[in-house]
């Protein structure tokens, strides 16, 4: 997926999947650039958020916020380097954007 | 190395209230901030370096406020926040946050507050305080956070989007090609060729610590390009591991040994390092190492204390764990702990000892230190230290169990203390070892225990036991145990006074106060507290005032909130009774400033006093709000045991308003607390008596009589003159109501004679116009006429001028004006006709008239009716 080497300071697009869902209050603190998709499986609700983290400190900051509010991490994937070149598979169902 | 581009970026950040330097370890974040501030001496700065042990709200706020005060030593703008620190019962978080914000709003000038290594703060409470600060940014405050990971701060994304935030991130901090070469030249001490510099720059991605390690490694390399190629082809090895190996492999053995072994230390000085590593050869001192650029940061001007660059230290620690066994590493920690303990760095010593698994020495250290800390009033620190130890260890050490009891006492959690003392005692009984350390000698431990027992006995009104325990404690405890001995002295003095041995107590007090050997501030404070309690109980307001003034001076000079608040508490009490209401107001208000560090009783009674003052100014709403606020605080602070006293006070104020119904309702609620000695207000029984007198029935009067008999017995038994004055005054009113004028005058005279030396005025005024009549009669018979003249002057204008009609009576008066019959009025108000008639009689009496028509006319002239 990722073409050239990723560094600590590179801006990149990430897809993060975790168990559970968060409410609107928490969404306000998330950058408007992130898309949120709630997945209702048979077993449990999972959430996928996709968006740009400007570097590793920002990505880790986001992940530790998820940790702080008690949402277990399932998957983190780097989809593309640099903002704007989103190449993730299109997600059409239940897509919700926060503004 | 100066980096003008980044410095300019930071300069621009001053236009924002928040600057974030967020990048991984080793990117030169701190160095950049230090460089910037060196170039900007015009900025007033407060710098706080955080470490993982700062995940404690008290410690965090202490560092923060101290840093701010170092920036503004004259103004000390965070003084209010500091009053909230180390409180036995921590105030609610929002109060801390709001207080801090308020303090910072009043900064005298612009301030840049730097929090370095902010990612180490994981405690939710601290994060919440910081979130509050970010949400409500004080105008003069600029915040610079240095962190490895983006912090969870409110609306960070929004601020970023709206450019309300300046960020310096890894991409900004990384060294570009030209800069990278300069770093390599500087650290290697040689000219690095361009190709090698380019390759190393790419490999390290411009990461400063990588470049520095590479530069150090280059020092010993004859062939630079060859080294760069090996570096590039290092394959699956972590870059830093590879570079560190290259650096360390060329160090002489003693230096390598020194670096690895001292990596366990948070702070380093030569003497501490020698203790940990053993004697090192010439040339291996910290200043030598700093000169060879081995990631040491000097912490003071004199070059005594250093620390390792954090990332370098982490690398060294990993290497240490690979090279040495657990036992050897534990030995390093143990030796570090020993040196630190010997040099007074107790908390750091405890951390090293516990890291060494040497719980026994850690325990001994706490046991040895505990009395010094108790003497200094640093119970919060003892509490923290106890928290470092495993519970199971605590349960085996009588000294620590008792220390826990002292902590609980400080937190006003008395319930579990007896069980802890019991546990300690049974351990002591099993003790077979005879040669124990002096600080935990069974005699000393039993002495400590007896101090706590003495206090508990005293508050259960068991004064003989209180006295005996106190004496036992004083016999057992060494003279330099000032706090424990002071507490024993306090409860001995108060017990003696309550046993009627006032003269003996005061004599002993003078001996102690004059003893040169005992001039310790804590001991003296406790003695003065005892003096205040005694003078308050024996009704000697003049001496109480002197004690209060003296304590106030001491408390202010020594910056001791407890001394200040007790002093204000005493002085407020005196001034109120002397009818100097403005002075009383000033003292009680000042207690509120120290609400969280004061003994809770002083705060509680100051609030009651303020409610009473507001009532006396006719501000009924204010009085009620004060009591409501107090009730709220009792809940918040988990001090509900004080709640019944507030309810009694509501009844007392109701009576003063003439609202008998509310007071009677209170007497029937059955929530009256046990009598406590040392109660500086009217006891609840006395309020109860007032309510019964106001009910004005034969039955209620009989009940009042019974209560007064109990009260008199208690007051006489405990030689409590203050209680006796009130008791005789109420007895006078009772006799008056029972139509026994001679008894009434006799009781009133007793009250006046007891009150005159102290000069009590207000308590008579609170008892209403009937008391004024009695006093006037006494004065006309030549009894204490000057003193009585002073009391009468304080009474409000003649009682008939403003009759004190209850709401119900006003209602009935209005209906009387409408020419309704008693039966009709009874129907309207759902009362019996008899009750209406009783109300009518009261109305006539209060207005000084003999019938309905006169009453209406009089009420009109007094503007009660229109």
Please supply descriptive tags for the structure shown above.
heterodimer, A: alpha+beta, 5-stranded antiparallel β-sheet, B: 866 residues, mainly alpha, 5-stranded parallel β-sheet, 66% helix
Tell me the layout of helices and strands:
The complex is a heterodimer of chains A (99) and B (866).
Chain A lengths: L11 E8 L4 H4 L7 E6 L4 E9 L2 H13 L4 E9 L13 E3 L2
Antiparallel strand pairs in A: 1-3, 1-4, 2-3, 2-5
Chain B lengths: L3 H10 L4 E5 L6 H11 L5 E5 L7 H15 L7 H4 L10 H13 L5 E6 L7 H12 L5 E7 L8 H6 L4 E4 H4 L3 H12 L5 H11 L3 H12 L4 H9 L6 H10 L4 H10 L7 H8 L8 H6 L4 E3 L7 E3 L1 H14 L2 H17 L3 H10 L3 H18 L2 H10 L2 H4 L3 H13 L6 H14 L11 H18 L3 H14 L5 H17 L3 H13 L6 H17 L3 H18 L2 H17 L3 H13 L6 H17 L3 H17 L6 H15 L2 H10 L14 H12 L2 H20 L3 H17 L3 H15 L6 H4 L3 H12 L4 H10 L12 H11 L4 H8 L3 H15 L4 H10 L5
Parallel strand pairs in B: 1-4, 1-5, 2-3, 3-4
Antiparallel strand pairs in B: 6-7
Outline of the structure:
The complex is a heterodimer of chains A (99) and B (866). Chain A has 99 residues and is an alpha+beta fold.
Give a description of the structure:
The complex is a heterodimer of chains A (99) and B (866). Chain A has 99 residues and is of the alpha+beta class. Chain A is built from 2 helices and 5 strands, in the order E-H-E-E-H-E-E. Chain A has a 5-stranded antiparallel β-sheet, covered by helices on one side. The longest helix of chain A is centred in the middle third of the chain and has 13 residues, at 56-68. Chain A is globular. Among the domains of chain B are: 4-173, Rossmann fold (3-Layer(aba) Sandwich), CATH 3.40.50.300; 177-248; 253-357, no CATH class; 644-796, Tetratricopeptide repeat domain (Serine Threonine Protein Phosphatase 5, Tetratricopeptide repeat), CATH 1.25.40.10; 807-861, Winged helix-like DNA-binding domain superfamily/Winged helix DNA-binding domain (Arc Repressor Mutant, subunit A), CATH 1.10.10.10. Chain B has 47 helices and 7 strands. In chain B, strands 2-3-4-1-5 form a 5-stranded parallel β-sheet. Chain B has a two-stranded antiparallel ribbon with strand order 6-7. In chain B, helix 27 (482-498) runs parallel beside helix 29 (521-537), helix 32 (581-593) packs antiparallel against helix 33 and helix 40 crosses helix 42. Chain B is elongated, with a radius of gyration of 36 Å. The chains are: A alpha+beta (99), B mainly alpha (866). The A-B interface holds A 7-11, 28-32, 54-58, 60-62, 64-65, 68 and B 22-24, 147-152, 154-158, 160-161, 169-171, 173-174, 205, 207.
């Amino acid at each position: 997926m990722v073409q050239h080497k990723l560094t600590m300071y590179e801006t990149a697009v990430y897809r993060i999947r975790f168990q559970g869902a968060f409410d609107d209050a928490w969404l306000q603190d998330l950058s408007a650039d992130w898309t949120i998709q709630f997945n209702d499986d048979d077993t449990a609700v999972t959430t996928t958020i996709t968006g740009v983290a400007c570097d590793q400190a920002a990505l880790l900051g986001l992940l530790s916020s998820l940790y702080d509010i008690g949402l277990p991490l399932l998957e983190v994937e780097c989809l593309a380097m640099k903002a704007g070149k989103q190449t993730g598979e299109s997600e059409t169902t239940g897509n919700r954007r926060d503004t | 190395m100066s980096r003008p581009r980044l410095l300019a970026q930071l300069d621009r950040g001053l236009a924002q209230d928040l600057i974030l330097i967020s990048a991984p370890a080793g990117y030169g974040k701190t160095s950049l901030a230090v460089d910037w501030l060196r170039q900007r001496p015009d900025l007033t700065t407060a710098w706080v370096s955080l470490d993982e042990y700062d995940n404690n709200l008290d410690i965090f706020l202490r560092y923060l406020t101290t840093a701010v005060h170092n920036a503004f030593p004259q103004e000390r703008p965070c003084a209010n926040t500091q009053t909230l620190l180390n409180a036995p019962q921590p105030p609610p978080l929002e109060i801390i946050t709001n207080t801090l914000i308020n303090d910072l709003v009043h900064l005298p000038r612009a301030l840049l507050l730097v929090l370095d290594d902010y990612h180490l703060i994981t405690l939710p409470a601290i994060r919440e305080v910081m979130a509050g600060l970010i949400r409500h940014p004080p105008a003069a405050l600029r915040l610079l956070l240095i962190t490895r990971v983006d912090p969870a701060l409110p609306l960070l994304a929004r601020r970023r989007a709206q450019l309300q935030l300046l960020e310096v991130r890894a991409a900004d901090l990384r060294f570009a090609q030209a800069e990278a070469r300069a770093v390599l030249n500087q650290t290697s001490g040689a000219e690095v060729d361009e190709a090698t510099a380019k390759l190393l720059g790419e490999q390290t991605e411009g990461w400063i610590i990588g470049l520095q390690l590479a530069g150090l490694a280059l020092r010993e390399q004859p062939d630079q390009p060859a080294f760069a190629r090996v570096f590039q082809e290092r394959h699956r090895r972590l870059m830093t591991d590879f570079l560190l190996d290259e650096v360390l492999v060329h160090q002489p053995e003693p230096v390598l040994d020194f670096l690895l072994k001292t990596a366990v230390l948070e702070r380093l000085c030569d003497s501490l390092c020698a203790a940990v590593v053993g004697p090192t050869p010439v040339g291996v001192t910290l200043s030598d190492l700093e000169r060879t650029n081995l990631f040491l940061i000097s912490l003071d001007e004199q070059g005594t204390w250093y620390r390792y660059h954090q990332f370098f230290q982490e690398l060294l620690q990993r290497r240490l764990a690979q090279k040495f066994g657990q036992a050897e590493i534990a030995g390093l920690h143990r030796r570090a702990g020993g040196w630190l303990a010997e040099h007074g760095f107790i908390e750091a010593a405890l951390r090293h000892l516990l890291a060494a698994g040497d719980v026994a020495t850690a325990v001994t250290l706490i046991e040895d230190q505990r009395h010094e800390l108790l003497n200094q009033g640093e119970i919060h620190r003892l509490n923290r230290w106890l928290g470092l130890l495993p519970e199971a260890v605590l349960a085996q050490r009588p000294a620590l169990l008792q220390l826990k009891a002292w902590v609980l006492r400080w937190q006003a959690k008395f319930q579990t203390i007896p069980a802890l003392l019991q546990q300690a005692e049974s351990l002591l009984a099993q003790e077979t070892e005879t040669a124990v350390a002096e600080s935990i000698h069974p005699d000393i431990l039993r002495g400590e225990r007896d101090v706590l027992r003495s206090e508990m006995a005293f508050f259960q009104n068991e004064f003989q036991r209180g006295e005996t325990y106190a004496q036992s404690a004083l016999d057992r405890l060494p003279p330099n145990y000032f706090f424990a001995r002071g507490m024993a002295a306090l409860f001995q003095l108060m017990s003696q006074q309550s046993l009627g041995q006032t003269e003996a107590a005061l004599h002993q007090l003078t001996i102690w106060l004059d003893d040169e050997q005992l001039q310790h501030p804590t001991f003296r404070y406790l003695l003065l507290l005892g003096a205040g309690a005694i003078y308050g109980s024996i009704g000697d307001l003049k001496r109480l005032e002197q004690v209060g003034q003296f304590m106030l001076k001491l408390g202010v000079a020594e910056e001791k909130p407890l001394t200040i608040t007790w002093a204000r508490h005493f002085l407020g009490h005196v001034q109120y009774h002397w009818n100097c209401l403005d002075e009383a107001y000033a003292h009680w208000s000042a207690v509120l400033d120290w609400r969280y560090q004061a003994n809770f009783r002083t705060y509680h009674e100051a609030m009651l006093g303020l409610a009473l003052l507001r009532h006396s100014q006719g501000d009924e709403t204010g009085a009620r709000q004060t009591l409501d606020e107090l009730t709220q605080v009792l809940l918040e602070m988990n001090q509900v045991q004080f709640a019944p006293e507030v309810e009694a006070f509501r009844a007392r104020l109701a009576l003063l308003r003439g609202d008998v119904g509310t007071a009677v309702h209170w007497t029937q609620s059955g929530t009256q607390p046990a009598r406590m000695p040392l109660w500086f207000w009217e006891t609840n029984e006395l309020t109860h008596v007032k309510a019964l007198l106001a009910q004005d029935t034969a039955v209620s009067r009989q009940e009042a009589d019974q209560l007064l008999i109990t009260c008199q017995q208690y007051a006489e038994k405990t030689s409590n003159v203050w209680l006796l004055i009130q008791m005789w005054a109420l007895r006078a009113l009772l006799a008056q109501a029972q139509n026994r004028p001679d008894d009434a005058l006799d009781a009133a005279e007793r009250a006046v004679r007891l009150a005159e030396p102290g000069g009590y005025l207000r308590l008579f005024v609170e008892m209403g116009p009937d008391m004024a009549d009695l006093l006037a009669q006494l004065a006309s018979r030549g009894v204490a006429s000057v003193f009585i003249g002073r009391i009468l002057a304080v009474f409000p204008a003649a009682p008939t001028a403003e009759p004190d009609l209850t709401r119900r009576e006003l209602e009935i008066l209005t209906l009387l004006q409408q020419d309704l019959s008693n039966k009709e009025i009874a129907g309207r108000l759902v009362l019996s006709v008899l009750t209406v008639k009783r109300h009518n009689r009261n109305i006539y009496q209060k207005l000084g008239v003999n019938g309905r028509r006169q009453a209406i006319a009089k009420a009109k002239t007094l503007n009660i009716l229109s």
